[in-house]
Input
Amino acid sequence: MAESVRDLLAREGAGGRVSVQGWLRTARHSKNVSFLEVSDGSCFAGIQVVAAPDLSNYEDAVAKLTTGCAVRASGELVDSPGKGQRYEIHADEVDVVGGVEDDYPLQKKRHSFEFLRTIGHLRPRTNTLGAVLRVRNAASRVIHDFFQQRGFVMLHSPVITRSDAEGAGEMFRVTTLDPDDPPRGEDGRVDASQDFFGGASFLTVSGQLEAEIGALSLSKVYTFGPTFRAENSHTSRHLAEFWMVEPEVAFCDLSGLADLAEDFLKAVFRGVLESCPDDIEFFNERIDKSVLETLQHVIETPFERITYSEAVKILEQSGCSFEFPVAWGTDLQSEHERFLAEEHIGRPVVVTDYPKDIKAFYMYLNDDEKTVAALDVLVPKVGEIIGGSQREHRHDVLLRRIDEHGLSREPYWWYLDLRRYGSVPHAGFGLGFDRVVQFMTGMENIRDVSPFPRVPGHAEF
Ligand code: 4AD
Ligand code: MG
Output
């Protein structure tokens, strides 16, 4: 069995016959020797294979290898005289496993991220996307570790649901009815009762409501799965399908939740820095020179905490001319969020107690009856990375809030029931996983940190 490049490079010393297999990042041929850089995605670096003309297939095969070819190579592991590489392999055997045709689109030159999106089947072979995928993997593991170490139970929330968790009506419909000839009721409208699930059903926008079921029985739970939003957003921070991490905690209020959010984000950043130093180093050198410093600073300093009302005052007094005007009662736009986190405060900020009319129906109504116990965590460059709240656990108030939001009580019957049977104060938040990866890598566009981004007009690959 071939060893991974990662394991080979981590060896204590050179020596011995080893094998690697992977794809060529580069192939340089001169008269007496070929230098093949083999990458298998196990780590940022590749390993150099040096092949000489004494190989039996040198002229026919090895000397013709080009970028992208798949090879298996064996030989002696030796200390490399080259700069920036610890070992190289002096090959006694190089098998060409898969050649590439002439129109292989990935060449050594730099390609634009826009172009790479059009070749989603090949872009994970680039430095950048490979590093992104390893950072995603490390972040997932750290997230599970964080909650598992604290006694949270992972809850698998459903992907298909009949309730709109955010009440915002941005859901993708799931149906098996024939779009050209759906069954209709007497009123001429499509009869959803004949659909697969016996009623209108959708892809979930959030696992929160089900996480609340979990918290009100297992005390501390978290979900980690894909969520879907049919919002027509063409920004660098929005996907129509993204992964969300949603912890939910019983007997917890807003300030306990803010503590959890801060500990959690710091643990994720710390854990990824430890697991993928080479990948983060690359992002720091090639994508955004402030990534490492920012991460270190965020890990070391306490987050700022301010109320929405204070945030509005800061923005009003900032002297900045924003595209969207600020006034108490309007939602904070990305430019406002970034001003607060990036310029005014210079580190992550937890904004709490938003006006009730701009937030979801399930948030705990504060005594002032004007604001709800919500929190958003804003970070430099990305803006909102976490959104959460203490939940409304009082049955009568929740009923009123559902009505005020113009929502139908019917699909929320079980959610309301939880407020009649042993209801307790509880709180939770949602972390946008792709936005965390964006923040940690400094990538400009969220489409370039998702392996298969889904945005309006695009669901290829
Ligand atoms: O603020 P949001 O909409 O909150 C919820 O869905 C709550 N139910 C979460 C909870 O309390 N359990 O979304 C949570 C986070 C946002 O802060 C953002 O990071 C991310 O999810 N997010 C998106 N990420 C990428 N593309 C989108 N279209 C996103 N919408 C939200
Ligand atoms: Mg939000």
Summary: DSSP finds twelve helices and 16 strands in the chain. The mean pLDDT is 96. The first strand starts at residue 17 and ends at 29. The CA atoms of residues 3 and 388 lie 44 Å apart.
